[in-house]
Amino acid sequence: MTSWLQLAAAAAPEGGLFDLDATLPLMAVQVVLLTFILNALFFRPVGRAVEERESYVTTSRAEAKRKLAEVERLEADLTEQLRGARQQAQALILEAEQEMDRLYRDALAEATAEANATREKARKEIEIQRREATSALQSDVDRMSSMIIDRLLAA
Question: Mean pLDDT for each 10-residue chunk of the chain (155 residues)?
Answer without folding.
Answer: 53 59 86 92 90 96 97 97 97 97 98 97 97 96 94 88
